[in-house]
Amino acid sequence: MQEPEEKKIALELLETEQAYVNRLHLLDQIFYTELMKEAKNGKTVPEEVVKMIFSNISSIYQFHAKFFLPELQKRMEDWSCNPRIGDVIQKLAPFLKMYSEYVKNFDKAVELITFWSEKSPPFQELIADIQKRKVCANLTLQHHMLEPVQRIPRYELLLKDYVRKLPPESPDRDDAEKALEMIFMVAKHSNAAIAEMERLQNLWAVYQRLGLEDDIVDPSNELIKEGPIQKISTRNNSTSEKYLFLFNNMLLYCVPKVIQVGAEFQVHLRINVDGMKVRELNDTQFPHTFLVSGKQRTLELQAR
Q1: 293: Cβ–Cβ under 8 A, 6 or more apart, which residues?
Q2: CA–CA separation, 195 vs 106, rounded Å?
Q3: CB 260 within 8 A of CB 238
Q4: 41-95 tens-digit pLDDT
Q5: Per-residue pLDDT tens digits for 246-276
């Protein structure tokens, strides 16, 4: 008898899960544990650094080794009388949200490994020593650390395949489709977490360029556009270089600092977006000019 297609995929899920748990064991029980032990002895790097590199890998390892893998194993042993995995994945899928923290931290972790490998030869030597072991299969720590980042997309692909191969009358159809939807949401959650982190990092970089004025620093602000602009002075028919930052709630009219110590710009004026009007002007002497008028002030500006 030919094995049904959906069983082959369920078995592939189980086999890849076993291999994945071994990889997590290597990361948590060998790399993390040994690096932490040396850090505690004060021989390599501060303990905090090791914690930052490995983020929440211990929770991820415990979850897969103690819950996800055993549940899948049990299911595959009972396949002949209960051919389904959808309900198991549904039950455990919400826990996969903890991957967001690990994925968000990944780039920072790789940076820390590079930085401290150069700064602390004993740290580099210990990593190199572990990498030489048979269990590492000639792959670097960074390579192994990438595995959890790729795991959820892998579940998604396997489950999609599983749902596609299920016969219409399969008792697992409803549960498997729900499980796939949940895994899809977890992947989205993880991507959204990365996007949000990048947005906040970019926002923070802008605040630093503006000199971190207390009343501007707000995590809910959204930067829409920024760039140089010419301010037109009607008094003496001349222009001077200025810089604009447009946020969702305010327009910042800034002057570039000549001596850039700390901040790059000085905020000269803030116009609230609420009630602000922008009108194009037809000025032959100054093309591409427009008028920005707000409750605070009106500016005549010229774009490039």
Answers
A1: 276, 277, 279, 299
A2: 13
A3: no
A4: 988 999 999 999 999 999 999 999 999 999 999 999 999 999 999 999 999 999 9
A5: 999 889 989 888 776 677 888 888 888 898 9
Can you list the domains of the chain with their CATH numbers? 5-210 (1.20.900.10), 223-302 (2.30.29.30)
Distances (CA, A) of 192 to 90, 103, 111, 154, 197: 21, 11, 22, 18, 9
Please name the amino acid found at residue 286.
F
- Predicted confidence (pLDDT) per residue in 82-125, tens digit: 999 999 999 999 999 899 889 989 989 999 999 999 999 999 99
Please report where in the chains the tokens 């959808």 appear, as a residue. 86
Q: Whole-model pTM?
A: 0.72
Six token digits for residue 44: 């390599």
- What proportion of the chain, given as a percentage, has pLDDT over 90? 60
